[in-house]
Amino acid sequence: MKFLQIIQIPNWFLDQYNRMNAENCHLSYKEQITLLSNQIADCTSIITPYLSQMGYECTLLIPDYKQLQLKWTVENNISIDHNIWKYSILSRQIEHYKPDILYFSETNDYDSHFLKKLSWKPTLICSYCNSNMCLQQDWREFDLILSCSQAVINKAKQHVMNTSFFFHGFQSRINNTLNNIEKQTDIVFAGKVPDDLSHISVQSLLDVGKEPLGWEGQLSINYFLDAQSQDLANFPAGIVMYDKGSKYGLDYYHALKMGRIALNPIIDDEFDRCIKITGAGTFMLANKNKNLDQLFTSGTEYETYQNKAELIEKIHYYIDHPEKRELIAAKGQQKCIKDYSIEIKMNELNSLFQNCLKNRFPKVMPGTAICYQTKNNRISGYRTIPEYNLSDGQKWLEHARSCFNTGKINEAFDIYEQLSIEYQEQSIDILAEAYDLYQKILHYDHYRLYQSRHYDFGIRPSDKVLDIGNGHSPFILASHLADISLSDHYDGSSEDPVKYVDEKPVYACNIENLTFNDKEFDFVYCSHVIEFAKTPDKACEEIMRIAKRGFIETSTQGKDLWLNNGKNRKHQWIVVNKCNRLIFKEYSPSAIEELQNIILKDFYHSPRNKREKAFSALVLLKPDLVNTMLLWEGRFQYEVCHREQ
């Protein structure tokens, strides 16, 4: 499996590396990136060497390294847009290497807007990020977000199916280069500080910085702030006066190792620095954090403070008691190497990848056919909607009519939709004509009305197909039908009697307790049913139990409100498809209150003029905007949120 890691390295370090290794400029791209990665691999977030040992075919890219990136374009005879060289080259590299897994490490420069433009779509797109700058990113095209920042995890859950608390782990062989470094400084801090001067991390650094001024016998202090000089202009002098500049790679660990106490005011549950401090064998003094106590034991493997007085008191205590300080540091290091080594964390990462790949469903990309294939060579997925050159609108309108009359219904409505977009001034007439054609299709046949235009269910004539909740409008491709009642017609949405179909068996059963064997059906069709379930989690499990794959559709909350459906039809749940995970949110009395007016409902069901017909046609042409739809195979993920939650 091809794995491509994109890692961000500070520009100041790359400039420094260039100056110190100018003699290497004649080497090939591969030789240069190998030299650089070997030099910094042990002390950065580069994980390709470890995944290579697990069988991955790994490639590392450093998109900020302009000199090296331009060399790659020359060697591969690739032209780029030099105005956006970084994005232009990286997109070409992704297309060149064609990774199965694309992994971004601590970079905020590439989000969904960048990914959407790629011609090569990796199977799994992952980002490891801890910075609060990540909170502004658009992650909708990502499959997995990893972080040791709870704020990042919480934000990612809004858009991404898979998230996990994670850090890369400590590379213990770094200690081979640290063993002979002597303690030279009482207090060290290395890392980023926020712009908010009231933040606990800034205040802690300032409190410590002021301390030597008020005690007899000054403390020695070194801060290694990850910031440019212009960023420090507004910082208090009590911090800046101790700044020795940014450190990266092995120099970062040297800076930590030289300190008797490594100050670690934790920013937003960000634990990556905790692993580096303890792994290097330095005594860590951190602000009290309940989540950190899940990784290390306070008082035994590191020490904490809760206020300024306790911070200063513990600094002086542990400076005066080196044997106790070094015992805690040794136990912290032992814990880090035993439980949080890079080898252990890479096994964990591999498991995360495999689980995501196992449960992953394809994303729909514009103009792209996304399909999945079963063992029996049955192909199903999202139907490709071709784009037409509609320069001659009248000619294409006549072609659309011809397509409909010859049975090419999906092609006909593809053209009608694109004509309505291309010719806005005539869109009402075009859409009204499309509505009139829709009326020639059986109204309750949702499959032919719009589903088949967007999905290829991949159903074969020999497949055993169950329609759950068929009511009065059975799925045309179903071989078996099922409804909650075959006689009481007030359970369904329309209160119409169950329709029987010749030679198709009909069963009375509840979706939450289906009377069928495991995997009895090749496909299960469940359209506008599951939102009535009292316990949708049971319904989901039952659907997956009895079938190998299937399709689920419900109304969106918006459709429920403007069609007066939710309250009138006794819908229990708002259903949302978030990254192929069905989210069930229980309707509250206020949320289910409708427009209390049937104007829009009449527009849709009983249009009286061309404008209202155009509105009705738009709803049918764009069903994904008013319906929640999910095509699944094997299993799908779901989440149930009750009102009290």
Quickly list its features.
single chain, alpha/beta, Rossmann fold, 3 domains, six-stranded parallel beta sheet, elongated
Structure, described:
It is a single chain. By secondary structure, this protein is an alpha/beta fold. The chain has three domains: 2-165, 3-Layer(aba) Sandwich (Rossmann fold); 174-340, 3-Layer(aba) Sandwich (Rossmann fold), CATH 3.40.50; 431-641, Rossmann fold (3-Layer(aba) Sandwich), CATH 3.40.50. It is 36% helix and 17% strand. It is built from 22 helices and 23 strands. The strands form five sheets. Strands 2-1-3-4-5-6 form a six-stranded parallel β-sheet, with helices on both faces. The chain has a six-stranded mixed β-sheet with strand order 17-16-15-18-19-22. α4 (66-75) packs across α5 (85-97), α15 (393-405) packs antiparallel against α16 and α17 (427-438) packs across α22 (610-621). It is elongated, with a radius of gyration of 31 Å. The model is unreliable at 361-379 and 489-495 (pLDDT under 50).
Describe the structure in brief:
By secondary structure, this protein is an alpha/beta fold.
Strand and helix map with partners:
Layout: E1 2-7, H1 11-20, H2 29-40, H3 48-53, E2 57-61, H4 66-75, H5 85-97, E3 101-105, H6 112-116, E4 124-128, E5 144-147, H7 150-156, E6 162-165, E7 185-191, H8 200-214, E8 221-225, H9 237-240, H10 250-257, E9 259-264, H11 272-279, E10 283-287, E11 303-305, H12 308-320, H13 322-339, H14 342-359, E12 371-373, E13 379-382, H15 393-405, H16 409-422, H17 427-438, H18 446-454, E14 455-456, E15 465-468, E16 480-483, E17 506-508, E18 523-527, H19 536-546, E19 549-555, H20 557-562, E20 573-578, E21 581-586, H21 599-605, H22 610-621, E22 627-633, E23 637-641
Helix pairs in contact: 4-5, 11-13, 15-16, 16-17, 16-18, 17-22
